[in-house]
Description:
- The chain is α+β, with helices and mostly antiparallel strands.
- It has three domains: 148 residues, Jelly Rolls, CATH 2.60.120; 101 residues, no CATH class; 53 residues, no CATH class.
- Helices cover 18% and strands 32% of the residues.
- It is built from three helices and 20 strands.
- Strands 1, 3, 17, 18 and 20 form a five-stranded antiparallel beta sheet that branches.
- Strand 5 and strand 6 form a beta hairpin.
- The longest helix has 27 residues.
Amino acid sequence: xxNTILQNNTLFIRSQDSDxxxxxxxxxxxTLQNSIKKKSNEIFKIxxxxxxxxxxxxxxxxxxxxxxxxxNNVLKTPLVIKSGNYNILELTTEIQSLMNSNSTYGNDTxxxxxxxxxxxxxxxxxxxxxxxxxxxSGNNKERSIASQLGFTKENDIIFNSNLVKVSDSYVNxxxxxxxxxxxxxxxxxxxxSSTKQQSNIxxxxxxxxxPLGIITYQYYxxxxxxxxxxxxxxxxxxxxxxxxGNIIELGNQINWSFVMSIQIIKNTEYxxxxxxNNNLENELVEEKIKKFKVPNQLDELIDVNEIKNKIKSHxxxxxxxxxEIKNKIxxx
Length: 332
């Protein structure tokens, strides 16, 4: 009953058709000319059927490309690593170059070495004074490059000519694990572990291709769906984010698209409990039986004595008829 589709609406959504067309089209709005409406005892069931997203975004980007640091207890201007899809050697070379070119102690002060066997980074300095990477206390902690270098954000890292520091975790360049389609038409049955509350996530899209390919997704039976309980749907807001909820930077005027099914089904909150349902059904059956039942003579009780008396009466009458015939014959 609750999965019976009363109405099914298929929407073909393209970011280039947005009401508020911007260069970065990871976030956009669509307004339907005619709203989709439901009754109070119904609910919307929303399914993302298929998705196509160009893999143009970069793993090192404005959400995770900043390095806060100090030299000899003097706070330095944060280093901003140019966004891109780096391998670890390219990334350590870029950061090493930025640190040396902005160091008070010269262009050959710092070395960042990647240990491939252990998947960690070693930090070295030729200067006896402390250099501190502010992975924990920096103003840009939430945008830190730390995880790409194999460091957690639990501690600031101090090193000098006598103290080499190595990653306290492992190098991880896959900073975007999945893509999340979020919308204003969600929330009844969707929850987010980061907020522990109802979520605006419509669907999670796994990244199943390499950079510069097309990320595709196809719904299959068993994938979670979203329930939405407003009376109508007309204004639709969509955004494409990473797992932290940050907007994905696809690039200027790069579009993505998806197919969405908006179904109307019965709202289980309006269902009569099964026990009451069963009782009502039984009462209806009994009423129908009483109304349409044809009397069956076989259902009546048989009175044996009455039948015997009837038989005896017939026999006596028969005998009387025979005696009367005999008398007539004798009188001839």
